[in-house]
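User: Please predict structures.

Assistant: First:
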Amino acid sequence: MKGTILENAGRAEIRQAPFPHMVIDNALDPALFDALQTSRPTMMDQQAEASRKGNVRMPISARMFRDLEFYPSCWRAFTARHVQADIYFAIRTLFGNSWPENQPQLSPANARFGLMEADDFEHYDVLCDARLELISPGKVYGSHRRAHLDAPNRLFSALLYFRDAVDDTKGGGLDLFAWKNGPTDNAGTTFEIDENAVECRVNVPYRANQLVIFPNSIHALHGSEPRDAGPHERAYVFITAEMRDDWM
């Protein structure tokens, strides 16, 4: 799928522990990644209050990229491409038998896909987003969100990292966790899960043009690795699809 995060997905293998996921180095064509990286919106561009606070998340949704013409054209085209139905079906095909059996069985022939923040579940079965997420520079060592599960109506998550070449801050990757003694109560709706209930098994470093993909499930525990204080934003594109009803 040229021009998408899946262009080089064929060379990746599914990693089963602690839950099914893929990590793809140099996911995008270098020329496309460089164009996105050099024109990436920043918190200062938005004049965001969050830029003055440590480890605060600010999203720029695909709907915003679509509707606001001052954003760079490469970003508008990139995010528009990644909210199409074929992205979801291609990711599901990539995972094959590792895709959770209890997820809804969607078909390209009858599932209606729309855009998050623009469409609604009255007319669409699935709403998609491809948003740039900016995390303000850390004032102290810490994380904006540790171990958690994604929303129980979410189908998958994909994160493409946009680390600046000058960013020498330690940490800031993605930690993947496992339950110590099985899922806790209200695990799917808790902002952060008690650290005593989980253990970190895998760390995916925060590297430019590195992609992480995983289907949502009760075992897909993840969180932002703490990072040192420093002057650099953390940035990634988050691609996802959600249904009206919780399935997990």
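Second:
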Amino acid sequence: MSLAPGEYSPPLIRQARSQGGVALAMVVWFVAAMSLLVVGIVSEVRVDTRMAQTHIARAKAMAAGDGAIHLLLSRQALLREAQGTPGGTGPEPVLEAGFMLGEQPVQVRMVPVSRLLDMRSAPAEQLMNLFAGPGALQREDAQRLATAVVQLRGGGVARFAAGSKPLAVEDWLQVPGFDRALLDAVRDHLRMDAEAAYRLDAVMEYDGRRWLRRRWVTLQGGSDASGFPWRVTRTEAPRVLDDRIKTAGAR
């Protein structure tokens, strides 16, 4: 069958080229959309993987940290039993030890709360030095905040209900000027539990980061069910340490 000479006229050729351009644009948009979809999936997988690794690290920090803390408490109990009632008038020493739990090294430090600052009874000058030193507040702001804390202890801050007293350090966050950033800056110098006699810090390295597991204990009222002569009064969630901050506690 022969074709007529004018069958493919210039308008038809331009229409074919136009349709080809639209098809090319659709292909480009489809490829771009698929690329964005793949990037989103890969990003979500990375986030999920990192979250899973973080959960594993937290679980390891809890298990290894608690085990190492119990080992140091057992060692301390044996020392107290061998030495009898501690004598002397000096401050109780800080105990430090390293343990291997499986293949995981853990360093534990046991700090008597007598070496830490109790905001419920510390004088205003010590509070001001704490807020101006580790807290990095201006001297005037530190003085103002220390005065507010002292007033709160005497019931002079209306923000708290009548007759109520702060039981945990977090309760001081209700004082104007005492925020979470300040608490994180001074927490290693504070007594965070009213019942505890010791603070125990277990530090381990995992997944390229240093993890801290912190517990507060008293040697009174141990549970018969557990068989331990001590009782945990406060347990803090595992957290990653900033190497620029010393978390060994006040000396």
